[in-house]
UniProtKB/TrEMBL annotation:
<dbReference type="GO" id="GO:0004553">
    <property type="term" value="F:hydrolase activity, hydrolyzing O-glycosyl compounds"/>
</dbReference>
<dbReference type="Pfam" id="PF02837">
    <property type="entry name" value="Glyco_hydro_2_N"/>
</dbReference>
<dbReference type="InterPro" id="IPR006102">
    <property type="entry name" value="Ig-like_GH2"/>
</dbReference>
<dbReference type="InterPro" id="IPR006101">
    <property type="entry name" value="Glyco_hydro_2"/>
</dbReference>
<dbReference type="Pfam" id="PF02836">
    <property type="entry name" value="Glyco_hydro_2_C"/>
</dbReference>
<dbReference type="InterPro" id="IPR006103">
    <property type="entry name" value="Glyco_hydro_2_cat"/>
</dbReference>
<dbReference type="InterPro" id="IPR013783">
    <property type="entry name" value="Ig-like_fold"/>
</dbReference>
<feature type="domain" description="Glycosyl hydrolases family 2 sugar binding">
    <location>
        <begin position="37"/>
        <end position="201"/>
    </location>
</feature>
<dbReference type="InterPro" id="IPR023232">
    <property type="entry name" value="Glyco_hydro_2_AS"/>
</dbReference>
<keyword id="KW-0378">Hydrolase</keyword>
<dbReference type="Pfam" id="PF00703">
    <property type="entry name" value="Glyco_hydro_2"/>
</dbReference>
<comment type="similarity">
    <text>Belongs to the glycosyl hydrolase 2 family.</text>
</comment>
<feature type="domain" description="Glycoside hydrolase family 2 immunoglobulin-like beta-sandwich">
    <location>
        <begin position="257"/>
        <end position="287"/>
    </location>
</feature>
<keyword id="KW-0326">Glycosidase</keyword>
<dbReference type="GO" id="GO:0005975">
    <property type="term" value="P:carbohydrate metabolic process"/>
</dbReference>
<feature type="domain" description="Glycoside hydrolase family 2 catalytic">
    <location>
        <begin position="292"/>
        <end position="574"/>
    </location>
</feature>
<dbReference type="InterPro" id="IPR008979">
    <property type="entry name" value="Galactose-bd-like_sf"/>
</dbReference>
Length: 587
């Protein structure tokens, strides 16, 4: 490779062959109930600011003793430093804290011979932001999008015995991606969710979608391979159906009367699907969610969403989330009296929705179409559409998820309207059983809720910071009176920073001021009957590069609880008291 490699060092198109988007929603396999082999653990690792690895083809280097190598090398992917997978590299070494660029992960993978008619798939839970996959020096595909899972088939790529798996993960922020270059959360990098190898028969269930639709239990299956029927069973309901497959796809109704899932009664049923010797399973709840005028209606009853917004962020592990962390988050939400969480601003770990299903929380899930995305760029739309499709396919069996949100605080331009309308169409085509929302801004000039996107979504999310970024608090009341939306509004964000360590006694950044903003917000919003929920910003303080004043010091301090995830600020109790009142009114 010496000559090629030298040429590539001077080639500025070095990365073009790798920027395919061939690992996407259509290459996913359904993994519920499968026994996979975990590839978590130590991987060889190197940061690579100049992309020397792609230019010099580090992925093609086979293991060798240094004395046996015949060419000089800038990095040996099979030797040296290791890091744990999953993890975020910023949290491992101080000198990697602000690193943006490629990180190379390599590990050996020894496999037994694959039996006749068997297939293998690698699944990566999430890698931030894009990930190029190589096996034994061969490029197998690339994935865009830092928070959704992706799969790559390894059936032909792995040989019996020792193989080498190399993943090049790049977290550089670029103009055409989703999100773009500017966000209010930390730009973590790395493989920060689980990596698993699955073995399947020739027929593989790629997708299973089970839901209550038109009053009936309906199952849709997608199978890749020769199977011509799939069988779906719900033993707890004594229901089963054989679904004929055409071009690998089929849909059928099951004769079943499930007890409905709700936050008070989170009933779940085991569902299995078999096709051509492949078998997957899931635990599914059945409920309806609709909008009727300005109401949000769950199982036929209007509800108020008592919520809180959360990021996936931890002082010690960054974006790498444990089951314990998710459970603590829900326990705090329960203490607040919530029935609802907004999982902002990107898809969270899939365990979150599974646990919400079990515990009885309603969820808003979201893709990072955040602030100034490059709305006119077709590549950006392709990326956003794929991330949305991957999220919906991953979580559409979760009764807890009631809202797909397609964006946050995007300016009301023609390009954005056309972009977001297409995303709303994608969400509805992938899943006609849930509500579509976006977090919008009020029209500050006209002092009213007015956004052309509102006509294309079911729930108007409003992010407003009266008392904080908008200092004239009285304007919120004016907006309330001036607005007459024809559909439900959820206050998807409001809040104020409160620094529990170094904040002043009063005024901006004090805990007292944060509490006062909550009191005033609650008093004003209570009078607006079209407001059907709220998810203030935010449960915990979270890390972010752009906030460096003496009170924030690298953190957004709008949490009701500090970054230690223990210290509660006074605003916590104010919101909890309000939600207790709301809950009592509903009973
Ligand atoms: C917003 C954004 C959120 C920020 C928050 C803030 O409107 O949606 O991502 O973190 O405001 O604290 O400024």
């Amino acid at each position: 490779i010496a000559e090629n490699a030298l040429q590539a060092l001077h080639d500025e198109d070095y990365d073009r062959p790798f920027n395919t988007q061939d690992l996407n929603a259509d290459t996913l396999i359904f993994t519920g109930g499968r026994q996979g082999r975990s590839l978590d653990g130590d991987w060889n690792f190197c940061v690579d600011l100049l992309d020397t690895g792609l230019r010099q083809k580090w992925f093609a280097m086979t293991p060798a003793r240094p004395e046996d190598r015949i060419e000089p090398w800038d990095y040996d992917p099979h030797a040296g430093e290791t890091v744990p997978v999953p993890s975020c590299w910023q949290m491992l070494k101080e000198k990697w804290y602000f690193f943006e660029g490629s990180g190379w992960y390599t590990r050996a993978l020894t496999v037994a011979p694959l039996g006749a008619g068997r297939r293998r798939f690698l699944r990566i839970g999430a890698a931030q932001y894009d990930c190029k996959v190589f096996v034994n020096g061969r490029f197998l595909g690339n994935h865009y999008g830092g928070s959704t899972p992706f799969c790559v088939e390894l059936t032909d790529a792995l040989a019996e015995g020792e193989n080498h798996l190399t993943l090049c993960v790049n977290n550089a922020r670029t103009r055409d991606r989703v999100p773009m270059r500017n966000t209010d959360w930390f730009n973590y990098g790395g493989i920060y969710r689980e990596v698993t190898l699955y073995e399947t028969p020739t027929s593989v269930v790629r997708d299973l979608f089970v839901r209550l639709e038109g009053g009936q239990v309906v199952a849709s299956v997608t199978v890749d391979g020769p199977a011509d029927t799939a069988r779906v069973e719900i033993p707890g309901l004594g229901a089963s159906v054989d679904i004929p497959l055409e071009d690998g796809r089929g849909t059928a109704r099951l004769d079943a009367r499930p007890d409905l899932w709700s936050p008070a009664t989170p009933h779940l049923y085991d569902v299995t699907c078999t096709a051509g010797g492949d078998r997957v399973s899931d635990r599914v709840g059945f409920r309806t969610i609709e909008r009727r005028g300005t109401e949000i209606v769950l199982n036929g009853r209007p509800i108020f969403l008592r919520g809180i917004s959360v990021h996936e962020d931890d002082a010690a592990t960054g974006k790498c989330t444990s089951e314990a962390d998710i459970r603590r988050r829900f326990a705090h939400a329960r203490d607040l009296g919530c029935n609802f969480l907004r999982l902002a601003h990107y898809p969270h770990h899939e365990r979150a929705a599974e646990i919400a299903d079990e515990m009885g929380f309603l969820l808003w899930e979201e893709i990072p179409v955040y602030w100034a995305i490059d709305f006119a760029n077709p590549a950006t739309l392709r990326d956003a559409t794929n991330q949305l499709t991957e999220l919906v396919r991953r979580d559409r069996n979760r009764a807890s998820v009631v809202i797909w949100s397609i964006g946050n605080e995007n300016p009301d331009t023609d390009a954005r309207l056309s972009f977001m309308r297409k995303l709303a169409e994608t969400a509805r085509a992938e899943d006609p059983t849930r509500l579509v929302a976006a977090a919008c801004l009020v029209n500050h000039r006209k002092l009213r809720i007015e956004d052309r996107l509102a006509a294309h979504i079911d729930v108007i999310g409003i992010n407003e910071y009266y008392g904080w970024y908008d200092e004239d608090f009285d304007e919120l009341g004016v907006i309330g009176e001036n607005s007459a939306p024809d559909r439900p509004v959820v206050i998807s964000e409001t809040g104020a920073d409160g620094d529990h360590e170094a904040g002043p006694e009063s005024g901006l950044f004090s805990l007292a001021y944060q509490a006062e903003v909550y009191e005033k917000q609650i008093a004003t919003l209570r009078g607006l009957d079209y407001v059907k929920g709220m998810s203030p910003w935010i449960l915990y303080d979270f890390r972010v590069e752009r906030r460096q004043n003496v009170f924030q010091r690298g953190w957004n301090r709008k949490g009701l609880i500090a970054a230690d995830k223990t210290t509660r600020k006074p605003a916590f109790d104010i919101l909890a008291a309000h939600y207790a009142e709301r809950a009592a009114e509903e009973d």
